[in-house]
Amino acid sequence: PTSSPDRKEWTVFAAIVATTTAATTCSENHDPWVVSAATGTKCTAVGCTTLSSESILHDCHAEVLARRGLVRVLWKEVALQKEHGHGEDDDDKASKRRFLLTRHKKQPCAFQLRDNVQLHLYVSDSPCGDASIYEIESVEAAQETIVHQFTGAKVLTTKGAHVCLQECDGEVIDQSRVVREKGEQLLGKLRTKSGRSNLLAARRSTSMSCSDKLVRWAVMGLQGSALSKMIPEPIRLASCIVSADPRNRLIEGQRLALDRAFRVRTVQAMEALKHCGDKTVAQFSQTVAIPECHIVLKQFDCGKSSMEKARVMDQPLDHSRKRKRGESLPKYSPTGFSINWTLIDTDIELIVGARGVRQGKKPKCEADYKTLESRLCRQQIKETAALALVDVSDEPAKSYSYSQWKDRNTLSVIRAVREKLFQQGPLAGWLVGGQQMS
């Protein structure tokens, strides 16, 4: 298999792009460069062994991999700047690489995003979950009708999510906390990643949808809680840009769905934190900046919506042959592979989505998983972080699990915000490790 999908497979492309803003014109962005990029694929089932959990990428959707690539870059920058002490220009002229971080103005041992740098997320298709629910045009059977674009992401019915079966007119899947809606889908709700409804619970992903994760990152920052001591001020997206669904003549419905899933819920989360009763958390909520949402006409040929448009219009991407009379329309499925790249890496990494590891011999034991670890998995992120000397305790970081290590390096205010964020507001009922955040 190759790193790109074949002509009957689709993928999603996502990238985090940095821009510099001129001091004289705050609204004008200059000189963009790609920080991290990835194509998306399937997610790893929750039934993976506990021993290999930190070696596995559980969520291989493009947006998530692009964000994890950014985290990898930030850890590397912290390590380099602590070691070499870059100046105010923060540019490595020898390698022609530009840095995102500079020394914190008030905390000399910490770092912050450079004042003139903004980060933007591009996604070739609407993020899975709430942002993917909007009206589209169907031209099947030579009749043009308006139908709903449904998300395959299943609605969550945890106690905090405040969703009941009667409300969503659905059925619980395999005694789990997720429901497949039979009719019109609920809007603005928490959802887990998409997957076949006939899968057993142990083979189904419990990762939250990308729409939900975008809201979490908008509030808590892209850098993750483990970096909060080194980067105390959350790094947030300035905008989210999505390619237009080619099945629509008008893009307003898709834009409104993105706005509802991302911007509106970010405002709701901010308001919930503001009135949560914790003064420190309320003060933190005042720092939340609402990102912009844009739909652009430029499309990704291997994207889900682009290939679906080709299928419906009976215009297969393979123009070397014509469809015979009576032949059914081609069926497209998500590719089983994903790739990722960051500006600090010279190579492109190929991931097998169903296993959450690099391409290679099928892993059968813990040592096999370790050998095939992706540079974006939890264990590798922890090892990259060790270079930044974040964990200054007497005991080495490797003696802790990833969760323990992350908790030791998380600021108390971030812990408090995370707890409140998953207890009330639009993200209430969030699953962590398949369990509701208490």
Brief digest:
The protein is α+β, with helices and mostly antiparallel strands and 438 residues long.
Care to describe what's here?
There is one protein chain. The protein contains 10 helices and 22 strands. 43% of the residues are buried. Helix 3 crosses helix 4. The chain starts with 8 loop residues before the first strand and ends with a strand. The chain has 438 residues and is an alpha+beta fold. It has helices spanning 62-84, 165-168, 210-220, 252-274, 279-285, 304-312, 366-371, 378-386, 402-408, 412-421; strands spanning 9-10, 12-21, 29-40, 91-92, 97-98, 101-103, 111-113, 117-123, 134-138, 145-149, 153-156, 170-172, 178-181, 191-194, 237-243, 292-296, 333-334, 337-342, 349-352, 357-358, 431-432, 435-436. A hairpin with a 7-residue loop joins strand 6 (101-103) and strand 7 (111-113). 25% of the residues lie in helices and 22% in strands. The strands form 7 sheets. The protein has an 8-stranded mixed sheet. A 4-stranded antiparallel sheet has the order 12-13-11-14. The radius of gyration is 22 Å and the shape is globular.
Which features characterize this protein?
438 residues, alpha+beta, eight-stranded mixed β-sheet, globular
- Name the structural class: alpha+beta
| Helix fraction by DSSP (H/I, runs of at least 4) | 10-25%
- Outline the biggest β-sheet: 8 strands, mixed
Q: Which regions are unreliable across 5 or more consecutive residues at pLDDT < 50?
A: 390-394
Mean pLDDT: 81
